[in-house]
Amino acid sequence: MLAEDSARIEAQLLERIASGDREAFAALYDRYSGPLFSFAIRIVGSPSEAEDILQDVFVQIWEKAGQFDGSQGKPFSWSVAMTRNKAIDRIRSLQRRSRLIDEATKAVESPVAQMEAGNELNTDEANRVRSAVNSLPEEQRRAIEMAFFGGKTHIEIAAILQEPLGTVKARIRRGMFRLREELEGIA
Amino acid sequence: MTREELQELASLHALGALPPEEARAFEEQLRSDPELRALHEELRDVTNALALSAPPVAPPPALKARILAAIDKPAPDKIIPLTQHQAGRQAGSNFIPWAVAACLVILVTIVFLNNTALRARLHDLAAEQDKSKQQTAMLQSALDELRAKDRVSQVRIAMLGSLLESSPKAVAVSVWDAEKQDGVLVVQNLAPLPADKDYQLWVIDPKQGGPVDAGVFTVDDKGTVHFRFKPRSNVNAAGTFAVTLEKKGGVPAPEGKMVLAGNLL
User: Fold this and answer.
1) I need a surface site. Which of B64, B91, B196, B199 has the fewest CB within 10 A?
2) Does A157 touch chain B (CB under 8 A)?
């Protein structure tokens, strides 16, 4: 299914959710829960934290579906932004990421926890995104991931990497532009 | 500002990597620059696609039922999240440790404050408030460590006060997991030691005879340590935790001066 088709179907689901349609909500959960749960774990590092975040996100979707504005982006992007905000808030407030990363590493490495069939978002898309991210030069990938998954500002990234601010900004720009080319049709 | 600099800002903003002030300034610029706005939207889509790069992990099946139950609740207010989590607990959620942790922190804070009031002859109120905050923070730190392992529901807590007139501000919190027979001791304001000395932690079961050695530790130059401990032998019903000052490496039974002690709450 094309990304645009998915976005259209998901926007329709949101419309139905806004009118209180539980079936539409369950259908959207089936589509988004896998990727959003994985994303939340990637940020907070803890499956148990990610469960709470996912619950908060879906409750928010239920309550605010009527506020979704298709002109401002796709439904999945809207949900990702919600998930990221909640997850980054969580790690900032708890400030215990290093411990959680250990837990997450174990969980991700566990074959039981690996996602099997049932994730209804297009896995080809996910594979393409992973491939694009992995194809970035290490320093670009690292800076982008520190920003997106770690919630760090470019100033914090420069301090952590002990690199000049200009270098970090340029790396991020080059990496993002390269991803834009690689992900054309998805993003 | 050059086009390249604007592209950098657009990339950083799309990633959420601009500090608030810079983000606001950039958003102002976006309003008056359609070309920049179009670029920013593309980069924002790239950013959101990055979410798919996370290693795939399936959410637990029970989570769906928990969330569906949550949306059946009345419109959210400040009380709802707890109700939602209670529903989750029935569905096998691991929210229990969070709830227990929160209750423990509140309980310990209350107990400590009450205790402080009773001992007002020793300290003025302001000093005790600071101490209470300090211990609560220490407790939180210790709980965080166990909470990460979903073990908070199994632990008990002891607040250790200073027995030294020379170090009245020394405090410690011991979080003890009887089932696992290990715990965490968080200490603050204890005097740093000379190289030939150690602090030694003891766990005391009133029905079990002598104190059980739980290991030696030192503190940093600020008098703090975060010490994971495991008693050398099984402790059936720990009641008291105590810290003594001993020779380097510790001793089989306490010999030195007791510097901190406290009972399990």
Assistant:
1) B196
2) yes
